[in-house]
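Sat 14:20. Reprocessing the chain from the morning session after the first attempt stalled halfway. Input below, unchanged.
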Amino acid sequence: VQLQASGGGLVQAGSSLRLSCTASGGTFSTYFMGWFRQAPGKERLFVSGITWNGASTYYADSVKGRFTISRDNAKNTVYLQMNSLKPEDAAIYYCAAKRSRADTLYDYWGQGTQVTVSS
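Finished this time. Tokens:
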């Protein structure tokens, strides 16, 4: 499975961005999908996740109420709608896929897309 993330950019605090991650080469509709982010000098952290059918979603406390994850299995794409962006949201955002929500490790990772938030 190849994952291609896009949609990052430079925005002002309070603005919105929508990230996309498109999968190819596998059965996207069966995977649990996640978004992670990594700021300079910091570890990669979980941001949000969604089950294969979109029935359940998960968020880090730091983004609850501001970010929304969704997926379109017909388009092999998962989205991360980011609203009310803060400077601390700035990071490289990565999408990832794993075969089961219960799995600890993700099997596939995208290349990342940069999000910069100016204050």
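The chain has a mean pLDDT of 97.
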